[in-house]
Write a structure and sequence with these properties.
- The chain is mainly alpha-helical and about 500 residues long.
- Helix content is about 50%, strand content about 5%.
- The chain is built from 19 helices and ten strands.
- The protein has a three-stranded antiparallel beta sheet with strand order 1-2-3, covered by helices on one side. A three-stranded antiparallel beta sheet has the order 8-9-10. A two-stranded antiparallel ribbon has the order 4-5.
- A hairpin with a 7-residue loop joins strand 6 and strand 7.
- The radius of gyration is 28 Å and the shape is globular.
- The C terminus is likely disordered.
Length: about 500
Amino acid sequence: MTSTTAWSEAGKHLDSLIDEAKAVLPSAVNEDTAKKYEGAFRLVWKPLCEGRGMDPLGAGRAEIVALFDGAMSGEIRRFSKGNTRTGAVCLGQVEILLSAVRYSYRVAGRDCPLELFSLDELSNLRRSCAMTYAATAKASDPAPLMPPSDFKALCEAGPRTRADSACAVAAILSLDARLTCKELASLRDQDVALQGDGSVTLILPGRMVQIPCAHLFSEQVWLACAACMVRDHLRLPRAGAGTGLLSVKGRQVAGGPILYRAIHTYLLSCARQSPALTLHPGEPLSYQSAVAPRLRTGARQLVARAGTRSARSEMVTLTALKLTAMRGLTPSDIFARLTLDDVRTALSDSAAGGLEVRLPRSMKQQGPGTDWFGVKPIPYPTLCAVAAVRELLLVREAARGDRLPGSAPLLVAPTGWSNDSSHAITVGAARSAFIRFLRDVGLGEAGYTWESARQMHASNLVLRGATEGQLLRVLRFRKPNQMREWLLSFAPLTDEVSRAVVDGAGQVDQ
């Protein structure tokens, strides 16, 4: 056998090995990675190719170059995670997109357009992308500081959708005013009379129901006020929802039978979600007589604040936001680490009525272990991190029907509350909800990020006398023990700082 023949045979053998590797590549990718690749292909590569008039599985060199150009210019920022201010996508994300393209072509049995590039060409494209990302990230402005007025607007915006509000109002009126499903379905806007003292009068066939404006304090949480909830519901835009008080778009027809069934189905789901609630056919939603007062309180807040999946997501995310703004915790501190065992009632007198949170020590500190630091209450319930944590635990206990295990995450995803199947909410999901809340209250163009609220905590520490160097050390290296000591030393100024945070918030309704 000549050397030429030997080289030819070796080349054929190598080609066969490459073909075998290509054939087994799809099966070598685990399920989670395959889902990530499929999502990246669908959300990034497919729109990019279709926008250029190309088949996503028949692209060429130009589309690969366009992918890099889109990453460097920020064109694909809405599809993939990148620098939050510039929209530039980092090289690591670009590599995921390239892997997704390669994987999808292999599964489809097509030749991947990446094979049309030499190694040097791909290296040059990668280098340009990395340099562009570094330059844009370095030149970008820092996240703006969220002023107290915007933080207040974000936390007090009320229900985000009319559907969520209608569900909550239906459940509270059934509990407080003893309205049946049929009476709820028959209510129209003109049947509601708003009184000057804050109360609400409901005009029903054959009777009138007076609902006083009452903000009750139970289990260290301000309970939802039925009169205020009805007032807030009337202010929401209707968007073609019909004339019924509790109508939402697509659920109102002549005679209202669809609305009736929708309300009845919702109230039944409320009764199933909490062992403290019950609903008999044709009767109002009511509390079961044998349940403990704490479970009754939690059941009320469950139907008023977190009766739907979107409302639960809002409650969890705003609780995290308040912890960030009031105590400077980072997203990784809150979402990845905190369980119920890491939260307790404050033991020190200086944090009376508050909570203490346990976090692992920073790598910059000496020795392993954890530290507890205090979270003090402020006199404004809608902005208070302590009240938000306690209310969240109340409604989750009501959904479960019992105390939560200590190993449960503090902040959980909106599904599975009643059967312990919930996992801790991810940082990405919370950030997405935060951006949605900003848009809903008209702050979407302000450029705020999660770090904006954390900087607000830093500004509060400045009011308490901390130096800039101290702030940088705390916020960069997350030293909970040192932060706790500062908070205790600044305790005499807590009320003054709280008033500064909620400038113009007014007094709590008594």
